[in-house]
Recover the amino acids of this structure.
């Protein structure tokens, strides 16, 4: 399948933006938490789950989505939010707990919500799938061609919500796509120790729907597979499951000692980094010059740097405003 240069450049810029954003967040989150790790200290307190290494899953499908399409995300949401077009300033301010954030600082990292681009983050494992089914049902009832995409980790595919939602989506032929990000571990449990099937796309057969598998964190293959899945959903051909073999370079959460991983695992994964591979594809197969790629990288950095500056300079909510908007 031929991919336009504009799409390839958008994918590269967005993947680079996600990676740079997560690297900056790792630095900000670490502030004030050492030498003894204190989850409540620093400018970004609480738990933090970063998606470094998982960029292809988000970028490969969101490039095919419209503003009116719905995306739901789990507790590792930044890459999905960025790829869907969530306001980066407001998103970063929300994570910093500032009044200028998406939820005025009340939701934080695991509860991002932006109705402007129909993005929501449930935080709880598998919680976003029923919401996406609801959005897909609404789109069908309204007679639109909108689709709903629910991102989940491979561990969530063993939750009841996964099976109940897919059964209903198949029964009603809804425009739903469930993207399973198989990053190899459910917290610290390897997939082989928790899941009876080799990959979750196989489970699509149980509901009579389409299943796809993307190997080796490949952004080009994710683009191709997602294009077909989105086109099927828009044309009334019903739901599908996409499982992408992806990798998180960091722990389940920041501060995770990662005693369950081989020390050489991440080193080996970084040798086939998807951003580096896409960079090489653009240069070697499409003739894009290095200076053009540098321009895309610098543009992404500037946007991210501006978002972090906005978040740090924003004010915290006032105590008297704590209940504001909760009962509207």
């Amino acid at each position: 399948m031929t991919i336009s240069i504009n799409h390839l450049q958008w994918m590269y810029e967005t993947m680079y933006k996600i990676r740079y954003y997560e690297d900056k967040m790792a630095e900000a989150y670490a502030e004030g938490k050492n030498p003894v790790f204190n989850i409540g200290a620093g400018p970004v307190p609480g738990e933090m789950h970063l998606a470094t290494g998982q960029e292809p899953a988000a970028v490969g499908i969101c490039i095919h989505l419209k503003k009116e399409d719905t995306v739901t995300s789990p507790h590792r949401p930044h890459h999905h939010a960025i790829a869907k077009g969530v306001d980066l300033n407001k998103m970063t301010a929300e994570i910093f707990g500032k009044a200028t954030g998406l939820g005025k600082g009340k939701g934080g990292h695991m509860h991002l919500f932006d109705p402007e681009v129909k993005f929501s983050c449930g935080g709880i494992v598998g919680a976003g799938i029923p919401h996406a089914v609801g959005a897909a049902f609404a789109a069908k009832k309204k007679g639109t061609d909108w689709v709903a995409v629910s991102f989940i980790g491979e561990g969530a595919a063993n939750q009841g919500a996964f099976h109940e939602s897919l059964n209903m989506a198949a029964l009603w032929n809804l425009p739903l796509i469930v993207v399973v990000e198989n990053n190899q571990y459910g917290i610290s449990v390897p997939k082989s120790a928790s899941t009876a099937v080799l990959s979750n796309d196989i489970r699509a057969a149980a509901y009579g729907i389409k299943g796809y598998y993307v190997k080796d964190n490949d952004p080009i293959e994710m683009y191709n597979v997602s294009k077909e899945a989105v086109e099927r959903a828009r044309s009334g051909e019903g739901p599908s499951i996409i499982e992408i073999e992806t990798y998180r370079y960091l722990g389940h959460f920041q501060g995770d000692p990662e005693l369950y991983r081989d020390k050489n695992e991440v080193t080996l994964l970084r040798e086939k980094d998807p951003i580096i591979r896409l960079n090489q594809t653009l240069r070697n197969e499409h003739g894009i010059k290095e200076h053009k790629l540098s321009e895309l990288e610098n543009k992404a950095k500037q946007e991210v740097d501006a978002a972090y500056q906005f978040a740090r300079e924003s004010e915290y909510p006032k105590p008297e405003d704590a209940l504001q908007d909760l009962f509207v």
